User: Fold 1,4-dihydroxy-2-naphthoate octaprenyltransferase from Saccharopolyspora aridisoli.
Amino acid sequence: MATVAQWIEGARLRTFPNAIAPVLAGSGAAAGVDEFDPLIALLALAVSVSLITGVNFANDYSDGIRGTDDSRVGPFRLVGSRSARPGAVRNAAFACFGVAALAGLGVVALSGQWWMLAIGALCIAGAWFYTGGSKPYGYAGLGELAVFVFFGLIAVLGTMFVQAGTVSGFGIGAAVGVGALSCAVLVANNLRDIPSDRVTGKRTLAVMLGDRDTRTLYTALALIPFVITVLIGLRNSWALLGFLALPLLLVPLRAVVRGATGRYLIPAVRDTGFAMLAWGAITGLALAFG
Assistant:
């Protein structure tokens, strides 16, 4: 039986910036057009955090029963370590998806945007089939694209839309920036796992590109948000404060560029997430008050 501490570790709290940053950025964009709704924002945050927790448990379950995690270097896995029964981890994922669905129902009820129930269903399906099902798209090199869409475009613009009833150019820029950094987190994670993923047949984008090109991709994704910062800053000078997040990327960028491998890339995954959270929060505040 897994301990409470192991269940918490299995939830992978270090990935929560991927869920929090888009809600902060989207809420800031909504406030920028004077339509911030704190209750809807909190419910959107509950949706996002529940979804990413469900994704983490679902990945733990699906990768664990396939044996993908048997030789992986990385964070603790409940199924792969044999600490929890696969069925229990699967049920934990479904429970998180249920919480996300309930919170999402509250969002659409308060906003009146009932058509977004379809978007919510798509997000839950995307969370499960990333590594679940007979043909998981995460095993076909589509993980980064899904992260960009779900935790970038949908999360940021969806958060803005349910509060403001519209999206803005600034909101789109914030969505692209958060999505790029969220992708960078996954790229760093998959870069670390290239050797084990090749052995188990998990064809991530990193496996397809190879070590060198994956490092180049990470660097490009990590720097895209600061291009967005400059573009937004042309009309909102407060957005230039987004460069305060850049120092948080210096250490992971150095590790990736200099060829770090295996467990030495674990801090790069974590630090990229922190940089994303900082950039999303600062950019959201700039859009709200700038």
Summary: The two ends are 51 Å apart (CA to CA). Residues 38-66 form the longest helix (29 residues).
